Amino acid sequence: MDYRLDGTESLGIEFGSTRIKAVLIDKDFNPIASGSYTWENKFENGIWTYAMDEVWQGLQAAYKNLNADCGNKFGAKITKLASLGFSAMMHGYLPLDKDGNQLCEFRTWRNTITGESAKALTELFGFNIPQRWSVAHLYQAILNGEKHTKDIDFLTTLAGYVHYKLSGQKVVGVGEASGMFPIDSTVNDYNSEMAEKFNALPKVKELGIDIVQILPKVLVAGENAGVLTKEGARLIDPSGNLEHGVPMAPPEGDAGTGMTATNSIAVKTGNVSAGTSIFSMVVLENQLSKVYEEIDMVTTPVGKPVAMVHCNNCCTDLDYWVNVFGQFASAIGAQMSKPELYDALYESALYGEPNAGGLVNINYFSGEPVSHTDDGRPLFVRTQNANFNLANFMRSQIYSTMATLKIGMEILEKENVTIDCLMGHGGLFKTPLVGQKLMAGAMNCPVAVMKTAGEGGAWGMAVLAKYVVDGDEPLDEYLNNKVFANSECKTVAPDENDVNGFNEYMKLYKSALKAEVVAYENI
């Protein structure tokens, strides 16, 4: 590649659920190098978590791999950057004391242990507070009498924590902030009335907690969120090659970077991210008529209201099945790479019956608030006369990844929320056409996938980082006029047979959820 690193590049790093990915972009927003590190959450003492040591181990490994890619392509390592930004899996709970020490394990979005507090706060605010939100975790810890709550000086998310350690700044992007505590979009800050109500709760008042004081400062996209410190540069690059003083973007969650990466921050645009979890984001023209437990009200990176349907389970169960087929392929001496295996199995789903032949798969590894299930047990069910073949099996697996999302999206349909097109990104869309076609049928809406969709949130974060140093227009115009002006995009319209078939599948799926409850209550 005829390119020389010259310090005009911007870097985005995203701590995803299964991978930490670093993407370097040039001045024209092209991804020119990348590096990654694979990690996995652990279920310890009833909590889904990650070890903080692995945060830094993974960051350094991803950055080292990025530099190796630069070395192979350009014959040089990174020394200077124009800008830098970090994002991570959304929300969760990461409390620190006044000395910056972590007070308990990092509690991820995947946990469904805050039902009591989420319900109480939803009623108190008249605003839906999902179980994964930071304030739900905080209030649940208080209700549980957890001793660490008296020592909380700073409550942040994984993205906010990494940013704080690298810059010294206690800040977070408004999109991520909107999953910590409700945001008032008229001022792009925490809702002051709700903050007062929270602070007045007896157990909160007893601890002397002022929720706004312990949360990070809210910034919108384009605002300077500090610079990379000398210590921070060494945390990323222990070799010492990376220079400090790099301007940093407000840290965001993977929802905000997903919206950016798919150019879905304008009114009536939407995107669906499908990986370990699956969620849709629809930028609203009008507010919803009432509070829905299944719909999260969050914001774009510039503070516009967004209706979000977030489901904890997407591709994990599907990946396990693909691994089983991979083991079979190895057992018979068939040499297939992982991408070839995925493509072959996904493509077989296109030949399945539109309703998956009477096969039903429930992909729950954890609970799903959208379908009101408290825990998860992966479950595959079929009747005796179901048409059990590979094509139908794989179609039922892929349908399973989007079935819970459909339950939430049905609410938006009843609210007459208009979506011109859903932009798809994430692992489900890596195999050309398959996930896109089946998603279009499932949501009964055109689904588009951009060429850059494979770069995902890390690329979106790199774009937000670049916006800090050269953004001279509103973000939606910046994305339209500069970032996506010449982007390649393929759109698939819903097929009527797929629409009708998925609706039939959903009837069986919803009935089978009763069996799911029995499974996790007894197994």
Automatic annotation (TrEMBL):
Protein name per UniProt: Sugar (Pentulose or hexulose) kinase
Similarity comment text for this entry: Belongs to the FGGY kinase family.
Domain Carbohydrate kinase FGGY N-terminal: 11-235
InterPro entries to which the protein is assigned, alphabetical: ATPase_NBD, FGGY_C, FGGY_Carb_Kinase, FGGY_N
Domain Carbohydrate kinase FGGY C-terminal: 271-467
MF terms (GO), sorted A to Z: kinase activity
Swiss-Prot/TrEMBL keywords: Kinase, Transferase
Calcium keyword on record: no
GO terms under biological process: carbohydrate metabolic process
